[in-house]
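Give me the fold.
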Amino acid sequence: MKTLQIMCCAGVLLMGTARADVVTTADGSRLVGKVVRLHDGRLVLETSIAGTIELDALQITGMEIEGNVNLEFESGDRLVGTVGITPKENASMIKTAIGEIEVDTDKVTSIWPQGEESPEVIMVRKQAEDARAAYEKEMDERIAALTPKWSAALEAGILATEGNTDRLEARGRFDLKRKTDEDLLHFYLAADFGEQFDVRTENEYRGGIRYDLDVTERLSWFARTELEFDEFEDLDLRVTAATGLGYWLIKEEGHELKPRAGLGYRHESFDDGNSRDDAIIELGFDYRLDIATWAQFTHTTTWNPAWDDFADYRLFLDTAMLVPLKDERFSLKFGIRNEYNSRPVQGNDRLDNTYYANLVFKFLDS
C-alpha cells in the first residue's frame, strides 16, 4: 500500500497508554496490540498473545492508531490527531480538535508521536551522536597508539663444572624497550664471561641504543649506537654508529621481516695503542615469527663493510628460539651468536661462535 510505504520512510508512531491499535495485512489478518514503530519498511507491533512481532510494511493494508500523532505534509503543514487508514482507500481520516479531516495519504511525509521530536530531528541527532562517538573512538585509538608501552627483561645463563675440568661460563643481558605504534626505543647491556682452571677464557661487554620510527606504513627510519669491549680481541673499545632506512616486507601479527640499509661510522682502539676509524655501510634485516603460543623464532643479521674497502667488514648474526614457561614472566631462550671479523688482530680467529641457553625474566610489561 503506497500510503504505508510513505509512512514507513517517514517516522515513528506513538505508543499510547491503555490503547489498542489495529493492523490489517494483505491476507486479511487483523492484529491487535500496540504499534511500537514504523520505520525502514518494518512495523513492530507488541501483542499480548504473540509478544513482539515484526511485519513487512508492504504487506499491511490498513491501520488504526488511537493515540494522537503528528502528521507532516509535503507543504510543511502539520496536523495532530488520531489516524484511521482502511483497506482499498487512498485517504486517511484524521480526528483533530476541530473535527474530522480527510487527507490525501500520498502527501504525508512524516508521522511521529505527539509531544516528541520529529523523525528528522531524531535522525540528525543520531547522526551527530554517531559522528561524535566515531570521533571519540578514533581519538582514543590514536592516544592509545601514541601512549608509550615499556617493557624490560633480564636474561642469564651459566655453565659450571668442577673436577677433572674446572670451568665457568656466564652470560647475561638486560633489555629495556619503549614502544608505541609508530616508534621503538631500545636500550640493551650484555656481558659474556668465562674461565677454565682459574684462567680467564672470555671477557666481553656490549651495550647499545637503537631507535626506529615508522615514516609510512611500510617505510621506517633507524639510528643506532653500540659500544663493545672484548679482552680476547685485544679490543679496548669499539664504537659503531649507523643510521638509515628500513622497509617492512612483512608486517603482520606474529610475523615480521624488515630489511634495512644505511651509512655509519666505526671507531676501534686496541690494547697496543693503535686505533682505526672507518666510514661503513650498514646492511641487514630483522625477522620474527611466532610459531605458536609456545615458541617464537627471531633472527638478526648485520653486515658492516668499510666504505672504501668491502673486503674489510664485520658480520653479526643472532638466531634464537624463545619458549615461554607456565609463568608468562619467564621463558627459555636458546640461540647462537656468530661474529665474523674479516681482518682480526693478529693471532685471533675471524669467526667467533657463541651458543647460549638463557633464562629470561620479564619484570616490566606495561
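Residues 1-18 have pLDDT under 50 and may be disordered.
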